[in-house]
Amino acid sequence: MHSKHFTIKTMIKKEVELMIDWTAAEGWNPGLNDAECYFAADPEGFLVGFLDDEPIATISAINYHDAFGFIGFYIVKPDYRGKGYGMQIWNAALKRLEGLNIGLDGVVEQQENYKKSGFNLAYRNIRFAGVGGGSSPQNSDIVDLNAVPFEIIDAYEQAFFPANRANFTKAWLNQPQSDALGVMSNGKLAGYGVIRKCQNGFKIGPLFADSPELAEPLFLALKSKVSASDAIFLDTPEINQAAVALAQKYNMQVSFETARMYTNDSPSLPLNRIFGVTSFEIG
After folding, report:
1. Cα 86 from Cα 71, distance rounded (Å)
2. Distance, first Cα to last Cα, the chain
3. Pairing of strands 68-76, 102-107
4. Which pTM does this prediction carry?
5. E-assigned strands of 110-230?
6. In whole numbers, what is the pLDDT of the chain averaged over residues?
7. Residue (of 260, 277, 237) closest to 101 by Cα position
8. Residue 4 φ then ψ, to 5°
9. How far is CA 56 from CA 10, 107, 239, 247, 250, in A?
10. What is the pLDDT of residues 85-117, one digit of tens each?
Protein backbone atom coordinates (compact mmCIF):
# COMPACT_ATOMS: atom_id res chain seq x y z
CA MET A 1 0.00 0.00 0.00
CA HIS A 2 1.67 3.19 -1.17
CA SER A 3 1.69 6.40 0.84
CA LYS A 4 -0.44 9.08 -0.77
CA HIS A 5 1.32 12.30 -1.77
CA PHE A 6 -0.12 15.76 -0.95
CA THR A 7 0.76 18.56 -3.36
CA ILE A 8 -0.40 22.17 -3.60
CA LYS A 9 -0.69 24.01 -6.90
CA THR A 10 -2.20 27.16 -8.37
CA MET A 11 -5.69 26.62 -9.74
CA ILE A 12 -6.68 27.06 -13.32
CA LYS A 13 -10.04 28.76 -13.94
CA LYS A 14 -11.91 25.45 -14.24
CA GLU A 15 -10.72 24.50 -10.75
CA VAL A 16 -11.95 27.83 -9.37
CA GLU A 17 -15.41 26.78 -10.52
CA LEU A 18 -14.95 23.51 -8.59
CA MET A 19 -14.08 25.55 -5.50
CA ILE A 20 -17.31 27.53 -5.89
CA ASP A 21 -19.21 24.22 -5.95
CA TRP A 22 -17.56 23.26 -2.67
CA THR A 23 -18.65 26.53 -1.06
CA ALA A 24 -22.21 25.73 -2.12
CA ALA A 25 -21.92 22.35 -0.38
CA GLU A 26 -20.76 24.19 2.75
CA GLY A 27 -23.93 26.32 2.65
CA TRP A 28 -22.13 29.58 1.76
CA ASN A 29 -24.52 30.30 -1.14
CA PRO A 30 -22.11 31.60 -3.81
CA GLY A 31 -23.15 33.74 -6.75
CA LEU A 32 -23.63 31.96 -10.06
CA ASN A 33 -20.84 33.97 -11.71
CA ASP A 34 -18.48 34.36 -8.75
CA ALA A 35 -15.69 32.19 -10.20
CA GLU A 36 -15.23 34.43 -13.25
CA CYS A 37 -15.21 37.62 -11.16
CA TYR A 38 -12.89 36.33 -8.45
CA PHE A 39 -10.43 34.99 -11.02
CA ALA A 40 -10.21 38.51 -12.49
CA ALA A 41 -8.98 39.84 -9.12
CA ASP A 42 -5.81 37.70 -9.12
CA PRO A 43 -5.55 34.73 -11.51
CA GLU A 44 -2.64 33.35 -9.46
CA GLY A 45 -4.46 33.65 -6.15
CA PHE A 46 -6.27 30.32 -5.86
CA LEU A 47 -4.61 27.21 -4.43
CA VAL A 48 -5.77 23.61 -4.52
CA GLY A 49 -4.33 20.69 -2.59
CA PHE A 50 -4.26 17.25 -4.23
CA LEU A 51 -3.89 13.91 -2.49
CA ASP A 52 -2.39 12.02 -5.40
CA ASP A 53 -4.90 12.99 -8.15
CA GLU A 54 -7.83 13.91 -5.90
CA PRO A 55 -8.48 17.57 -5.04
CA ILE A 56 -9.17 17.67 -1.29
CA ALA A 57 -8.41 21.23 -0.12
CA THR A 58 -8.79 24.79 -1.40
CA ILE A 59 -7.92 28.31 -0.32
CA SER A 60 -7.69 31.72 -1.97
CA ALA A 61 -4.85 34.15 -1.25
CA ILE A 62 -5.60 37.25 -3.31
CA ASN A 63 -2.72 39.70 -3.71
CA TYR A 64 -4.01 43.17 -4.52
CA HIS A 65 -0.99 44.77 -6.20
CA ASP A 66 1.40 44.07 -3.30
CA ALA A 67 -0.67 46.49 -1.19
CA PHE A 68 -3.13 44.18 0.55
CA GLY A 69 -4.05 40.50 0.70
CA PHE A 70 -7.26 38.63 1.43
CA ILE A 71 -7.81 34.97 2.30
CA GLY A 72 -11.00 33.04 1.61
CA PHE A 73 -12.38 29.70 0.41
CA TYR A 74 -10.52 27.77 3.11
CA ILE A 75 -12.12 24.34 2.71
CA VAL A 76 -10.96 20.78 3.30
CA LYS A 77 -13.23 17.98 2.12
CA PRO A 78 -14.94 16.49 5.17
CA ASP A 79 -13.30 13.05 4.92
CA TYR A 80 -9.83 14.61 5.07
CA ARG A 81 -10.23 17.05 7.94
CA GLY A 82 -8.06 16.76 11.03
CA LYS A 83 -5.17 15.19 9.11
CA GLY A 84 -2.96 18.25 8.66
CA TYR A 85 -3.79 18.96 5.02
CA GLY A 86 -5.70 22.13 5.90
CA MET A 87 -2.76 23.54 7.83
CA GLN A 88 -0.44 22.88 4.90
CA ILE A 89 -2.58 24.78 2.41
CA TRP A 90 -3.24 27.53 5.01
CA ASN A 91 0.50 28.03 5.44
CA ALA A 92 0.95 28.14 1.65
CA ALA A 93 -1.64 30.94 1.47
CA LEU A 94 0.08 32.92 4.22
CA LYS A 95 3.43 32.48 2.48
CA ARG A 96 2.01 33.80 -0.79
CA LEU A 97 0.88 36.99 0.98
CA GLU A 98 3.93 37.33 3.22
CA GLY A 99 4.69 40.93 4.16
CA LEU A 100 1.19 42.23 3.38
CA ASN A 101 -1.62 43.21 5.69
CA ILE A 102 -3.99 40.26 5.20
CA GLY A 103 -7.72 40.30 5.80
CA LEU A 104 -10.31 37.55 6.07
CA ASP A 105 -13.92 36.99 7.04
CA GLY A 106 -13.85 33.95 9.28
CA VAL A 107 -16.68 31.97 10.79
CA VAL A 108 -16.90 32.81 14.47
CA GLU A 109 -15.93 29.33 15.70
CA GLN A 110 -12.57 29.61 13.90
CA GLN A 111 -11.75 33.02 15.34
CA GLU A 112 -9.39 31.68 18.03
CA ASN A 113 -7.50 29.61 15.45
CA TYR A 114 -7.03 32.68 13.25
CA LYS A 115 -5.73 34.62 16.24
CA LYS A 116 -3.02 31.97 16.65
CA SER A 117 -1.94 32.76 13.08
CA GLY A 118 -1.62 36.46 13.88
CA PHE A 119 -5.06 37.76 12.92
CA ASN A 120 -6.83 40.35 15.07
CA LEU A 121 -10.57 40.95 15.28
CA ALA A 122 -11.66 44.23 13.69
CA TYR A 123 -15.48 43.89 13.83
CA ARG A 124 -18.28 41.48 13.02
CA ASN A 125 -20.19 41.29 9.76
CA ILE A 126 -23.83 40.28 9.99
CA ARG A 127 -25.71 38.56 7.14
CA PHE A 128 -29.35 39.58 6.98
CA ALA A 129 -31.92 37.58 5.00
CA GLY A 130 -35.19 38.92 3.64
CA VAL A 131 -37.27 38.98 0.48
CA GLY A 132 -37.12 41.05 -2.67
CA GLY A 133 -39.82 42.94 -4.50
CA GLY A 134 -41.36 46.29 -3.72
CA SER A 135 -41.26 49.43 -5.81
CA SER A 136 -38.20 51.31 -6.89
CA PRO A 137 -38.25 54.87 -5.52
CA GLN A 138 -39.41 57.42 -8.07
CA ASN A 139 -36.08 59.12 -7.75
CA SER A 140 -34.21 60.51 -10.71
CA ASP A 141 -31.02 60.29 -8.66
CA ILE A 142 -30.96 56.48 -9.08
CA VAL A 143 -29.10 55.57 -12.26
CA ASP A 144 -28.04 52.44 -14.08
CA LEU A 145 -24.29 52.14 -13.58
CA ASN A 146 -23.92 51.37 -17.29
CA ALA A 147 -24.61 55.08 -17.80
CA VAL A 148 -21.66 56.09 -15.59
CA PRO A 149 -18.11 55.98 -17.03
CA PHE A 150 -16.09 53.23 -15.34
CA GLU A 151 -13.34 55.72 -14.43
CA ILE A 152 -15.83 57.58 -12.20
CA ILE A 153 -16.99 54.35 -10.53
CA ASP A 154 -13.40 53.20 -10.01
CA ALA A 155 -12.44 56.55 -8.49
CA TYR A 156 -15.41 56.38 -6.11
CA GLU A 157 -14.62 52.78 -5.17
CA GLN A 158 -11.06 53.65 -4.07
CA ALA A 159 -12.22 54.85 -0.65
CA PHE A 160 -13.87 51.54 0.20
CA PHE A 161 -11.01 49.08 -0.26
CA PRO A 162 -7.36 49.10 0.87
CA ALA A 163 -6.02 48.61 -2.67
CA ASN A 164 -7.04 49.12 -6.28
CA ARG A 165 -9.21 46.28 -7.56
CA ALA A 166 -10.33 47.69 -10.88
CA ASN A 167 -10.14 44.35 -12.75
CA PHE A 168 -12.42 42.72 -10.20
CA THR A 169 -14.82 45.70 -10.05
CA LYS A 170 -15.20 45.76 -13.82
CA ALA A 171 -16.04 42.04 -13.89
CA TRP A 172 -18.38 42.36 -10.89
CA LEU A 173 -20.40 45.21 -12.42
CA ASN A 174 -20.81 43.42 -15.74
CA GLN A 175 -21.57 39.88 -14.60
CA PRO A 176 -24.65 38.10 -16.04
CA GLN A 177 -27.84 37.85 -13.97
CA SER A 178 -27.09 40.99 -11.99
CA ASP A 179 -28.08 44.64 -11.78
CA ALA A 180 -25.74 47.48 -10.84
CA LEU A 181 -27.20 50.84 -9.81
CA GLY A 182 -25.79 54.12 -8.59
CA VAL A 183 -27.17 57.07 -6.67
CA MET A 184 -26.22 60.63 -7.59
CA SER A 185 -25.97 63.68 -5.36
CA ASN A 186 -25.33 67.15 -6.75
CA GLY A 187 -24.43 65.59 -10.08
CA LYS A 188 -21.79 63.27 -8.59
CA LEU A 189 -21.77 59.55 -7.85
CA ALA A 190 -22.58 59.20 -4.13
CA GLY A 191 -23.12 55.47 -3.85
CA TYR A 192 -23.56 52.26 -5.80
CA GLY A 193 -24.73 48.71 -5.33
CA VAL A 194 -24.98 45.37 -7.09
CA ILE A 195 -27.57 42.61 -6.76
CA ARG A 196 -26.55 39.24 -8.19
CA LYS A 197 -28.12 35.81 -8.64
CA CYS A 198 -26.89 33.20 -6.20
CA GLN A 199 -27.60 29.51 -5.80
CA ASN A 200 -30.30 30.56 -3.34
CA GLY A 201 -31.92 33.90 -4.10
CA PHE A 202 -29.89 37.08 -4.60
CA LYS A 203 -27.17 38.91 -2.68
CA ILE A 204 -26.81 42.67 -2.52
CA GLY A 205 -23.15 43.61 -2.35
CA PRO A 206 -21.55 45.97 -2.34
CA LEU A 207 -23.91 48.63 -1.04
CA PHE A 208 -21.87 51.81 -0.66
CA ALA A 209 -23.41 55.21 -0.02
CA ASP A 210 -22.34 58.55 1.38
CA SER A 211 -25.24 58.68 3.86
CA PRO A 212 -28.10 56.53 5.19
CA GLU A 213 -30.51 58.79 3.29
CA LEU A 214 -28.82 57.80 0.01
CA ALA A 215 -28.35 54.13 0.98
CA GLU A 216 -32.05 53.49 1.54
CA PRO A 217 -33.41 54.41 -1.92
CA LEU A 218 -30.47 52.58 -3.51
CA PHE A 219 -31.27 49.48 -1.44
CA LEU A 220 -34.95 49.69 -2.39
CA ALA A 221 -34.11 50.09 -6.08
CA LEU A 222 -31.88 47.00 -5.99
CA LYS A 223 -34.46 45.04 -4.00
CA SER A 224 -37.14 45.91 -6.57
CA LYS A 225 -35.09 44.21 -9.32
CA VAL A 226 -36.17 40.78 -8.05
CA SER A 227 -39.57 39.37 -7.11
CA ALA A 228 -41.24 39.23 -3.71
CA SER A 229 -40.82 35.45 -3.82
CA ASP A 230 -37.02 35.72 -4.09
CA ALA A 231 -34.78 35.59 -1.03
CA ILE A 232 -32.31 38.45 -0.71
CA PHE A 233 -29.22 38.75 1.51
CA LEU A 234 -27.25 41.76 2.74
CA ASP A 235 -23.95 41.52 4.62
CA THR A 236 -23.52 44.54 6.88
CA PRO A 237 -20.61 45.59 9.11
CA GLU A 238 -22.19 45.42 12.57
CA ILE A 239 -20.26 48.55 13.50
CA ASN A 240 -22.39 50.54 11.01
CA GLN A 241 -25.57 50.86 13.05
CA ALA A 242 -27.36 52.68 10.22
CA ALA A 243 -26.76 49.65 7.97
CA VAL A 244 -28.12 47.28 10.61
CA ALA A 245 -31.14 49.57 11.09
CA LEU A 246 -31.78 49.61 7.33
CA ALA A 247 -31.88 45.81 7.18
CA GLN A 248 -34.13 45.62 10.23
CA LYS A 249 -36.47 48.30 8.86
CA TYR A 250 -37.25 46.01 5.92
CA ASN A 251 -37.82 42.95 8.11
CA MET A 252 -34.56 41.22 7.31
CA GLN A 253 -33.43 38.63 9.86
CA VAL A 254 -29.94 37.71 11.04
CA SER A 255 -28.90 34.46 9.34
CA PHE A 256 -25.10 34.30 9.67
CA GLU A 257 -22.11 36.26 10.90
CA THR A 258 -18.37 36.43 10.33
CA ALA A 259 -15.39 37.90 12.11
CA ARG A 260 -13.52 40.45 9.95
CA MET A 261 -9.88 40.09 10.94
CA TYR A 262 -6.52 41.52 9.82
CA THR A 263 -2.90 40.61 10.50
CA ASN A 264 -1.92 44.28 10.90
CA ASP A 265 -3.93 47.32 11.91
CA SER A 266 -7.39 47.61 10.41
CA PRO A 267 -7.31 49.61 7.16
CA SER A 268 -8.78 53.09 7.39
CA LEU A 269 -12.10 52.46 5.65
CA PRO A 270 -15.31 54.55 5.86
CA LEU A 271 -17.35 51.85 7.60
CA ASN A 272 -20.18 54.36 8.13
CA ARG A 273 -20.58 54.40 4.33
CA ILE A 274 -20.36 50.60 3.86
CA PHE A 275 -23.95 49.34 4.08
CA GLY A 276 -23.20 46.05 2.34
CA VAL A 277 -19.94 44.12 2.01
CA THR A 278 -19.00 43.11 -1.54
CA SER A 279 -18.12 39.51 -0.71
CA PHE A 280 -16.95 37.60 2.36
CA GLU A 281 -14.66 35.52 0.14
CA ILE A 282 -12.71 38.32 -1.48
CA GLY A 283 -13.20 41.36 0.77
Report:
1. 14
2. 43
3. parallel
4. 0.94
5. 120-131, 142-144, 178-185, 188-197, 202-209
6. 94
7. 260
8. -75, 145
9. 14, 20, 36, 37, 41
10. 999 999 999 999 999 999 999 988 888 999 999
